[in-house]
């Protein structure tokens, strides 16, 4: 089915000027960037976005990292976009990511792993709504 997923190009990617290189991988995989903006997110936004991880030992570090530099938030559209983008990103830990994936090519570590992508249709909806209004998404 035609789906939308939510993507973040994380601070380690913007700091190293890799947003174009990552977008090229996304587009080559057949995903369309139907909304995109570069923003500095607030601590409150980061805490809300990652609320499911709030009991994890790395939560504070994760929030601090996500507000340490600009991010690029995106909506990606395509056939099976949610699963496809997860495949294109590669495993959370870049050491375990397959060749050619964004994380294998660019990520620094499990924390500074360059990209986020929604893990389910329900989460995609919630995450997109946290950063975009419907009129900002142009397919
Ligand atoms: P993401 O897909 O954005 O969702 C949760 C994030 O938590 C994940 O990517 C990682 O960047 C981060 N994360 C997961 N495990 C660890 C860890 N052990 N230490 C630091 N960050 C982590």
TrEMBL record:
<dbReference type="GO" id="GO:0046872">
    <property type="term" value="F:metal ion binding"/>
</dbReference>
<keyword id="KW-0808">Transferase</keyword>
<comment type="similarity">
    <text>Belongs to the NDK family.</text>
</comment>
<keyword id="KW-0460">Magnesium</keyword>
<feature type="binding site">
    <location>
        <position position="86"/>
    </location>
    <ligand>
        <name>ATP</name>
    </ligand>
</feature>
<feature type="domain" description="Nucleoside diphosphate kinase-like">
    <location>
        <begin position="2"/>
        <end position="139"/>
    </location>
</feature>
<keyword id="KW-0547">Nucleotide-binding</keyword>
<feature type="binding site">
    <location>
        <position position="103"/>
    </location>
    <ligand>
        <name>ATP</name>
    </ligand>
</feature>
<keyword id="KW-0546">Nucleotide metabolism</keyword>
<dbReference type="GO" id="GO:0006228">
    <property type="term" value="P:UTP biosynthetic process"/>
</dbReference>
<dbReference type="InterPro" id="IPR034907">
    <property type="entry name" value="NDK-like_dom"/>
</dbReference>
<dbReference type="InterPro" id="IPR036850">
    <property type="entry name" value="NDK-like_dom_sf"/>
</dbReference>
<feature type="binding site">
    <location>
        <position position="10"/>
    </location>
    <ligand>
        <name>ATP</name>
    </ligand>
</feature>
<dbReference type="GO" id="GO:0004550">
    <property type="term" value="F:nucleoside diphosphate kinase activity"/>
</dbReference>
<comment type="subunit">
    <text>Homotetramer.</text>
</comment>
<comment type="function">
    <text>Major role in the synthesis of nucleoside triphosphates other than ATP. The ATP gamma phosphate is transferred to the NDP beta phosphate via a ping-pong mechanism, using a phosphorylated active-site intermediate.</text>
</comment>
<feature type="binding site">
    <location>
        <position position="113"/>
    </location>
    <ligand>
        <name>ATP</name>
    </ligand>
</feature>
<dbReference type="GO" id="GO:0006183">
    <property type="term" value="P:GTP biosynthetic process"/>
</dbReference>
<keyword id="KW-0597">Phosphoprotein</keyword>
<dbReference type="InterPro" id="IPR001564">
    <property type="entry name" value="Nucleoside_diP_kinase"/>
</dbReference>
<dbReference type="GO" id="GO:0006241">
    <property type="term" value="P:CTP biosynthetic process"/>
</dbReference>
<feature type="binding site">
    <location>
        <position position="58"/>
    </location>
    <ligand>
        <name>ATP</name>
    </ligand>
</feature>
<keyword id="KW-0418">Kinase</keyword>
<dbReference type="GO" id="GO:0005737">
    <property type="term" value="C:cytoplasm"/>
</dbReference>
<feature type="active site" description="Pros-phosphohistidine intermediate">
    <location>
        <position position="116"/>
    </location>
</feature>
<dbReference type="InterPro" id="IPR023005">
    <property type="entry name" value="Nucleoside_diP_kinase_AS"/>
</dbReference>
<keyword id="KW-0479">Metal-binding</keyword>
<keyword id="KW-0963">Cytoplasm</keyword>
<feature type="binding site">
    <location>
        <position position="92"/>
    </location>
    <ligand>
        <name>ATP</name>
    </ligand>
</feature>
<dbReference type="Pfam" id="PF00334">
    <property type="entry name" value="NDK"/>
</dbReference>
<dbReference type="GO" id="GO:0005524">
    <property type="term" value="F:ATP binding"/>
</dbReference>
<protein>
    <recommendedName>
        <fullName>Nucleoside diphosphate kinase</fullName>
        <ecNumber>2.7.4.6</ecNumber>
    </recommendedName>
</protein>
<keyword id="KW-0067">ATP-binding</keyword>
């Amino acid at each position: 089915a035609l789906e939308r997923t939510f993507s973040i190009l994380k601070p380690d990617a913007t700091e190293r000027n890799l947003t174009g290189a990552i977008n090229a991988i996304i587009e080559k995989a057949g995903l369309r960037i139907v909304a995109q903006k570069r923003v500095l997110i607030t601590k409150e936004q980061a805490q809300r976005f990652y609320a499911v991880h709030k009991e994890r030992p790395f939560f504070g570090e994760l929030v601090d990292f996500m507000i340490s530099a600009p991010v690029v938030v995106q909506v990606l559209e395509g056939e099976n976009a949610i699963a496809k983008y997860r495949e294109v990103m590669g495993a959370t830990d870049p050491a375990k990511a397959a060749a050619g994936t964004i994380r294998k090519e660019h990520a620094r570590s499990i924390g500074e792993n360059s990209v986020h992508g929604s893990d389910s249709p329900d989460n995609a909806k919630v995450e997109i709504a946290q950063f975009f209004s419907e009129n900002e998404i142009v397919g």
